[in-house]
Structure formats: C-alpha cells, structure tokens
Amino acid sequence: MRIIVFGFRPRTKQRRAIYDALLKCTKPTILWDLYAFTSGPSRFKNTSPLVRLLDEYLRLIGKDTHHASMDMIESGSFTLSNDLWRISSVNSSYTMCQSYPFALVVPKTISDDEVLQACKFRARCRLPVISWCHPDTGAVLARSAQPLVGLMMNIRSITDEKLVAALCSNLDGSRRKLYIADARPRKNAIANGALGGGSESSSNYFQSEIVFFGIDNIHGMRESFVRLREYMDNHGRTSSDGMSSFLRHGGGSIWGGGNLSSMSASVTTLGDSGWLSHVQNVLAGGAWIASRVAMEKASVLVHCSDGWDRTSQLISLANLLLDPYYRTFRGFQALVEKDWLAFGHPFSDRVGTPSVSGSGNVSFELSRQSSTGIASPPMRQSSGTIPPQPSVSSQAHNSNNHSPIFLQWVDCVSQLLRMYPFAFEFSAAFLVDFLDCMFSSRFGNFFFNSEKERLQCSVFETCGCLWAYLADMRASEGGSHAHCNPFYDPLKYSSPLLPPAAALAPTLWPQFHLRWACPEEAQSGEVEAQCRKIILKNFEIQKAKEVAERKAQETTSAMELLNAELRREKVLNISATNKAKRITKENTDIKRAIQSIGCKIHFSSSGDCIVDIENNPADAVPNLRCSSRQGSSTAVINDKTDLSVSVTEDDDDDGNNVIGRICETLCPFRTGDGGCRWPNGGCAQLGSQFVGFKANFDAFDRLSIDDSYFKP
Questions:
Q1: Terminus of the chain with fewer CB atoms < 10 Å: N or C?
Q2: Residue 209 DSSP symbol
Q3: From start to end of 228-303, where are the E strands?
Q4: Residue 85 labelled as part of a binding site
Q5: Among residues 168, 304, 484, 518, which one is catalytic?
Q6: Is pLDDT at 622 greater than 60 in this prediction?
Q7: Could you tell me if 531 and 431 lie in one domain?
Q8: Cα 229 to chain center, whole Å?
C-alpha cells in the first residue's frame, strides 16, 4: 500500500541508473541476490521448522509428552498414533507430493499403501490429510486439492472414498457427518471438470454434504487489491502525485464542496474494489467451518483447486477460531508454519520473489488483468507412477501468479482481533510488523514455494528467522511491548470463537491500509498505546508496592527476632536473679549451719572463705582456710594455732564427694579408724547434703545433737 515517488530535475541522466538499481535491489532476478542471502549470517538463528511441525502434530494427537528432535526425524521414529489418527512418514522424501510436508496426519485405519494409491485421485497428489482434530469429540479439519472426477464427474476412487470416510470415524464405531467445503464458486468447479478436475458427488461419500463458498481465485484477489490501492492513493490525505486529496479535482474537495454525489462516488469506488467483500467471504467461510465442528461435532474436508490458496485461508482461519492456542504468539507461529509453509502455499509465486530455478519471476507489478475464474489444468496420474510436477517458477513465466492471498488472510485475522479484543495475545501492531518482515526479504522463512525447496536451498541454516527476530523484540520490553495485547484475557475466551453472520462486517484495516495514505486516521492503536502506558505504570506501582511490602516484612521479621532476643534475655536475667537469690539464701543457710556447730565463716572478695573452728573457747581458735581452685584436692592440717586446709575440685570428682571430704575433715566425731562417735546424728542417712549449695538445712536443724559434742 505504500507508493514512493522519486523526482528528478529536467535533463538529468540519473533516472535510468537509479531505476535499474532500485529494480535490482527490490526485484532481484536470481535467488542469491535476495537480502537474506547477501546480508551475511544473522544472529536470529532458525531452528528446524520440521521439529516444530512434528511437535505440533504430537500436540494434536495428544502425545505432547514426547518431544520431537532431528534424531527422531532422521531415524523415522516419529510415526506415533492415538486411537484414531497416526503420523505417517510416507512423504518423508517428498516423492509422493512435492508440495506437502515430510510428515502427515492420517486416519489410523488407512495404511501407507492406501495413502499412495489415494493421492493419485487428487490434483497435484494433494490427498485429504488432517490439519486439526478436536481433543474431545474427535472431529477433524482436513484439507486436500480437488478430485480428478473429469468432465462427466463419473470417475471414482474407492481408496479416496475410504480415506474420506475414515475422517468421520468415532471410537465407538459410529460415523459422524461429513461436510465437504469447496471454496470455489460452483461454476468454477464445473469448469475445472472440463480440464480433468471438478468436485465430489455426495452420493459417492457416505453421510456427506457438499457446500460451495464462492470465494474468488487469485486473479480476482489481485485485481481487487489493485483497485483498493488506487482508491487509497486517490482519496487519501496525500497521494503519489504529492497533492492533497482535498485540493484535487479543480481545487475542490473530494466531497465536491457539499456535493453528496461526489461523496457517494468515492464510497462506491471503495465498494467496487471488492476487497472488503472478499474479506467477508473468507471470514464467513472460516466461521461456518468452525461452527460445524464445534456445534455439530462434524468433520469438514476443505479444498479449492490446488488446495494451497483459498484452502489455506479457510482451514487456518477455522483453526484460529476453534483452538485458543493458535491465538497466542507460539500458537500463531505454529499455525502459519503448519497450514501455510508446510502445506505448500507458493509464497515465491504469490509475492514475486525468485524461485529455485534462479531465473526469477516476472516483475511484481499489480497491474489489472482479466480474471478467467478457471484454475490451471490439474495433472492426471497414471496408475502406479507419480509423474514429476512442473516447477512453479516455470509456471510464473506462463501466467501472472502473484496475489495477496496471505495478506488477505492476515487482514481477516485483524478483523477477528477487532471483534474479539480480549481473545488474542498479540496486537494489530504485531500483525503489521509480521507482514512487513515477511515482505522485506530480510528473513528466509517465507522464501520459495514448499518445504522441500526451502530444505534444498538450506534456507534454515543460511538465513535469519523472522520468529526469532519478533520474539527478541518482545523480550526487550516483556508484556509492555507494542506486540502484546494489553486486553488479552485467556480465561474469558478459552473456548471456540463462533461469530454470527451479522458480526462479520469487515472494515478497512487502519493500521495497515491507512498508515501511508491517512497516517493520522491510522492511529487507532493509540488507545492500545495509552492503555499499555497505564498498565506499565500500574506494573511499576505494583512492583514498588511489592518491594515496600518485602521491606516491611523484613523489618517485621527483624523486630520479631529482636523481641524474641529480648524475651530470651529477660528470661535469662530472671533466671540469673533467681539463681543469685538462691545462692544468697544457700550461703546464708550454710553460714548459719556452720555457726550452729561452733564455727565462724568469712568470705573474701577473692572467692576464698575463712572458717574459724572453736573447739575450746579457752584455747586458741584454730583457723581453717579453704580455697577452691580447679585441679587436684589437698588438705593440710597443722597442730599449731592455725589450721589451714586447701581444697580444690578434681576434674574426676563431683561436687558431693568434695563437700563430703570437707565434712569428714571438719567432723570432730570421726575416729581414727574412720568410724563415727555420733551415729544418731543422721549423717549416714543424709550423707554430705547438709553442707554445700544444695544442703537440706531444714533437715540439719532437726537433727538431735549429742551433748558430748559440746564437751571438751
């Protein structure tokens, strides 16, 4: 939709040189002049799309616990299955169908030999295969090319009928209804019968119903897009001639200065382009297919002429409506790689880039051409052999095959995004950047016409990856990036989207169609931008709140630790106080007990205690000095006036033994042989408990004292 005009001064000679340079850069004649090849290695590496396709197949048949790898593909061990469907490797070398992927999902009851036989009944050997299967009901979406029934529509294939019937299988053995959706107008299908093609007969396919959608072919879509671009250029804010549309037509406004007929003429011009009608037809077809699968639990087989243009549009749109996974970033990538790239949409022919032959396509000028409405003649295969198919690049020279088919499908996705703004993880800005990257030739994902051709030219190892580039853009800003839909609510739309017919009223996609002709009016994404700013600010506030709450929690935890420490210190203080009181009481009791037996005790600041024993008041009072130290225990008794006893605790003795020895040393009733002259004193029963910190002083006071104790 963008038209760039280069202006030159009169009588300059640079015009031809610049034109040739622009033509060489924008439309290279050989494959290797494409920017993705000439720009050198890219940091956006492309992992093998074969692995990603196989992962998607495993997800569809409920085997997503397995993970695909190149080793699995090279060894051929990817042929897994469930109760109804299986992954077949019959096309692993692309000998059956050059435009189909290496792996196909087919009914489990159909063998590979039957698959090879059935493919001969379909144009370009594109036999019916499964694109999507319902995880609960078992209903499937299948795709193929037109059957080769001939002009009289009387040619049949029993194997093809068996394969199509197997698409309606149930686990209990019953059969579900089958719809065969032909994307073409009925008259086009009949006209293709004269060239060997045609459409199915419901009498040959059990419990089937044939529906024609009436969607125009690639030539009609191309002409419609040309008219749309001319309308935007003529009636936009600025045009390719540099003149504002309000000053065109004799200096008057396009609305004719109040002339309503001029207004009606411009609106009619938009309607005459037919673009919105085509978009509506594709939307209606996709919604109809999705409703049959979701509401009736029926299986649907979709095809057009070759099965790679209108079929890809309808089948991928129905996938998008049925499966919420395809409305995410990862799912959208899987959908495009499966139903567009793997199943052979001819991107080189439709976009106008060179193909495998290297001779290049015709110049990609969107000129007006008549629409024949009849597809190219399908190829009829003889039994037992599959003839080589003509190169699509050679077909490009015979007819103008470029057409905005994929762009039209993305336009349909944008219409659904407008109708269901909460159902998609990505935004309209993502779709715009996605299309720009696809057309830029900066990445190799959309080069060539089939998976086989991309493998032959080592596109995946040589060129950068569009998906990695877009993912890297989002990773820089996370959920606040412009590609992320700020209104996305996966829980609200976790079921199929089934828009009614009244809602399928498309409008011009402003972010794409109006961005060059009407840049101010194309800012419908500003609402998303403002919402994204609010969400970002709320995210920052929430983050600051979490940081503050975390700090408050840390402070609370620290206070609790301090309080616990204080409580512990308080308990220790109380315990020490009680212990000190107990020791003081015990010291008092010891002193009183020792004084009761005629002794005096004095405590010094060094920890020594002086005990004076008064055996005879008339005699000199002997002194006993007790010193407690760590080490061995010794006692020295002098016959002089001072009796000095040094007592230290031995490491091997407990406190009771030491106190017992002191008691024995002090006791005046000990005999020389160790006996006791005061047997009723109770010492034998109490041991040495009446001396020391744990003395039972009350029991000591209750002892009966022998009178002989007080005699000389």
A1: C
A2: E
A3: 299-303
A4: no
A5: 304
A6: no
A7: no
A8: 38
Residue type, 631: G
| In a domain? residue 315 | yes
Find the domain containing 425 and state its range: 49-219+273-357+401-518
Q: Are residues 57 and 139 in the same domain?
A: yes
pLDDT in tens, 289-304: 999 999 999 999 999 9
Beta pairing, strands 140-144 & 299-303? parallel
Is 650 annotated for ligand binding? no
Q: Residue 309 annotated as binding? A: yes
Q: Do residues 302 and 434 both lie within one domain?
A: yes
Contacts with 630 (C-beta within 8 Å, 6 or more apart), sequence order: 648, 649, 651
| Catalytic (active site) residue 304 | yes
Q: Is position 316 within any domain?
A: yes
**Is 526 found in the same domain as 507?**
no
Q: Check the annotation: does 275 bind a ligand.
A: no
Residues 249-290 pLDDT 10s: 444 444 444 445 555 566 667 888 899 999 999 999 999 999
Q: Indicate whether 235 pLDDT > 90.
A: no
Q: Are residues 540 and 495 in the same domain?
A: no
DSSP assignments along 302-364, one per residue? EE-SSSSSHHHHHHHHHHHHH-GGGGSHHHHHHHHIIIIIITT--HHHHHT---TTSS-PPP-
| 39: pLDDT strictly greater than 70 | yes
Q: What is the pLDDT of residue 45?
A: 86
pTM for this model (two decimals): 0.72
The number of domains in the chain is 2
Same domain, 509 and 540: no
- Compute the distance between CA of residue 438 and CA of residue 497 in angstroms, rounded to an integer: 27
**Which tens digits make up the pLDDT trace of 690-701?**
444 344 555 555
CA distances, 123 to each of 95, 144, 193, 442 (Å)? 15, 9, 12, 33
Q: How far apart are the C-alpha atoms of 133 and 191, rounded to whole Å? A: 32
Same domain? For 526 and 409 the reply is: no
Q: Are residues 542 and 405 in the same domain?
A: no
- Which pLDDT band, with edges at 50, 70 and 90, does 243 fall under? low
